Amino acid sequence: MLDRQQLLSLIDEMAASHKASAGQISALLSCEDEEVINYLFSQALAVKEAVFGRDIYIRAIIEFSNVCRCACRYCGINRENQNIIRYQMPAGEILGLAYAAIDAGYQTIVLQSGEDLSYTREMLGAVIRKIKAYAPAVAVTLSVGERPYGDYAHWRVCGADRYLIKHETADVALYEKLHPGHSLEKRLDCQQHLQALGYEMGSGFMVGLPGQTMEMLAEDILLLQKMQVAMAGIGPFIPHPDTSLAGAAKGDIALTNRVLAITRLLLPTVHLPATTALTVQGGRAEALAAGADVIMQKATPAEKQRLYEIYPRPVKEEYSLKEKRQLLVTQLKSLGYMGI
Ligand code: SAM
Q1: DSSP string of 11-66?
Q2: pLDDT at site 80
Q3: Which terminus of the chain has a smaller tally of CB atoms within 10 A, N or C?
Q4: 281 CA from centroid of ligand 1 (Å)
């Protein structure tokens, strides 16, 4: 057990060297001492500000299909869930939403879906090409899961810049339990292929998965470092009532923020979203204060957002995309940040 003084010194060391052992990370994650935690957050924010200043990057996400071939046990759109209506946006609808988001000022468009193979290499490639032709400076991020290397290569040639594919948990046994028929090895292989193709690769994981320990979370953070990820989506696990994990406990928000802050200390230049899962639990300001630098806003129409229910969340759609972005910029300004 490290005492308060040792933990405070450890935070200084981590902020300076960007290194820590799994044992040191677990010790900090388990710490409930408010003085230590406040110091952790202040150092993480200082590291974030040294790299990105007060800037917060705002991205638009289009969830274009909730059809999925996977059976991930935590996810509300997994193929076993018979209680949702499935949708698949035609290419024209995806493009209409992307153009509207670009016109509203978003600089990054994230295209996300379940693992829906009916969107072929060529179909998605054409969508990417059209978005890049409409706005060459806008970054296109894909998040469509595990696909053949040739698909990733084609989409890169079409202009895709980034790819989000989280490792979800670095613990092999837990990974296999949660992802029937899938392996962590395959997931990491996809990540490496994407990096070799020149994508900025984003990974990430959930906090509070049933059976997860502090040691596993420490390994999650170290895996991000080992893979040299450009982005890391880290959010609390939220049980979905139509999954086999319906009765499990929610991931802890305070712990998630500690994970974010430690990740910021160890990976100073990584993009860290204040994830939607964290935001729906009311934690956006805290996540920003713990070193997050990205916010994703939904550009998916409300009726489809309700169907893209990976975990339960309220969907209110009172504003246009432009208004939504403007409101966020104003809110960020009031917190002392600059939304860009
Ligand atoms: N199919 C793509 C893939 O596999 O990368 C992208 C879509 S997947 C639905 C998006 C992310 O949602 C996953 O990476 C996972 O971390 C998150 N997610 C799914 N179910 C969740 C839950 N119950 N609580 C919190 N996050 C969840």
Answers
A1: HHHHHHH----HHHHHHHHH---HHHHHHHHHHHHHHHHHHHTTEEEEEEEEEEE-
A2: 96
A3: N
A4: 16
